[in-house]
Amino acid sequence: MTTIFPTDTDRLRETVDFVREQDATTLLPLLLPGLDALELRALVDRCRFAHAALLIFPPTPAALRTVLADCGLSADAAPQPSVVVRDRLAARHRRDAADLDVHIHRPRVTGPAATGRDGTGRSVEVFALTVPPGSDLAPIAAHERARDHEAHVAFEVDRPDPLVLRGMCALLARHGALADGGGYNPHEDGTVLYFTAPADAKTGYRRIELYAPGDHRDVLATHLDAYRARHSAETLLRLMTGAWTTQALAVFADLRLPDTLHPQAATSTEALAHAVGADPDTLATLLRYLAMLGVVASDRDGHRLTALGALLRADAPDSLRPLALMYGGPFYRSFGALGHTVRTGEPAFDHLFGENHFDHFARHPDLAELFDRSMAASSRMFEPLTAHPAVTAGHAVPRPRTVVDIAGGNGALLGRLLTAHPHLRGVLLERPHVVEAARRTLDTAGLDGRCAYLAGDFADVPPGGDVYVLSRILHDWDDDRCREILRHCARAMHADADLLIVERVLPTDHSPSLATAWDLHMRCNVGGRERRADHYARLLADAGLTLVGRTPLPLEGTVLHARRAGTLQPTDN
């Protein structure tokens, strides 16, 4: 049987009616049935019923205005960004908060019944996340409409101070309300404390908000500690299932489901199973999991490919399919032996396969090709490099300048630089079995007349280049090997040559970073590591080079700019 959920307009209209019918005196006993008369009076004297809230998902901003107007609400006031709801959605659906542009609208509810005894009007708080047709946010919208996680009633605290707020939190907790998150919104200078209503609450709203104007982050910190204590087991369980996500995405890519699905037209489970050779019932389970991740969008008509899932299509520009297969294949197996690396400091890959990563891939051409394609899959990291001053400087020089890409894989980065700057020449230094693949790639791009190929090792870095590039090379090696590689570069570089090093750089604090995850990955699989910028500066200095600048790149990458020691160069941004 198909469940039909109310439309956003119906949900909003019900919320408006509720706001008109209630005030703090009538609503608090419904939410906290155990309140006695003195406790109710204490709460009513310190706060007022301010609004009821819900989260809706209009396809366009114009559709949102229509929904508000249909419910007798004005959309004239400018909305504010919602930090708290955005972050809650990101955590609940494992999405980047930057992809969730949630805004708050607070239209007033008109009519005498919606005005408190102090003359203050009440409102409806509308959280809006625009979800266009076919968007990869559609699974989030379906999940949230069905469960109404963000629906709540709010009480604004009059003249808040820490003592009053702590007392109110304690009173709610005494009657069964549980801490349920919150946050400080700098856009409006207000602190939000959420609670789950007690099980015996006599209203459909299961969440309560206390809103306190101003910055009360000391009280908020205590409140959030109580929330995390309740959810620690759930959080840990979610973390434990990370391997399931890796394999689900790898199987999704391996079966070529992204290439079979369409972004607009729905495809049934049975049709997909027939197309890719899968068991329909088990495939349906996989697709439900992928829909939860936002990789596909599913409804009663079938399944569609989202923009997120489209990155795994084989024909997508800079397709991430090779990465999914690599992380779900050889690297997944070696990560299963991470304990060996932690105990011994030795790469788990070597322990598992009996040889190091590079030798093993060299003996298995199919894996070598997959590895090179997986490295090229992150080529969007390279886009800003075409505008780096060390690369663009050649426009003012009459002679052609030469870029030397050291261990440049299949030539994806070098090809991007040569295509962007016709005045450049290129040299690709790589292992013999990789050089031929790179030659085919660059010849296909029409760059055969502007690129030379050199089969060799790091000891064979050729002199005469103007720009030398080490893209994601140093993190493969320990410090001694890095110094050796950098000394080969320094010997080849003339006095005005530049060295560009592309890596993920570890933060100097404990802030979240992809580099932190890749640090563990490198130690486990190749015996290398990620490093801080000052660590790279010391390695460069040991090789007679100077770090003169650093510039951020996409995918949390960084380009470190180095020159021969004693050569001055403006610092990069």
TrEMBL record:
Keyword Acyltransferase tagged: no
The organism of origin for this protein: Kitasatospora cinereorecta
GO biological process: methylation
UniProt name for this protein: Methyltransferase
Keywords in alphabetical order: Methyltransferase, S-adenosyl-L-methionine, Transferase
Gene Ontology molecular functions: methyltransferase activity
Residue ranges of domain O-methyltransferase C-terminal in the record: 336-545
Pfam families in UniProt: Dimerisation, Methyltransf_2
Span of domain O-methyltransferase dimerisation: 238-311
The keyword rRNA-binding belongs to this UniProt entry's keyword annotation: no
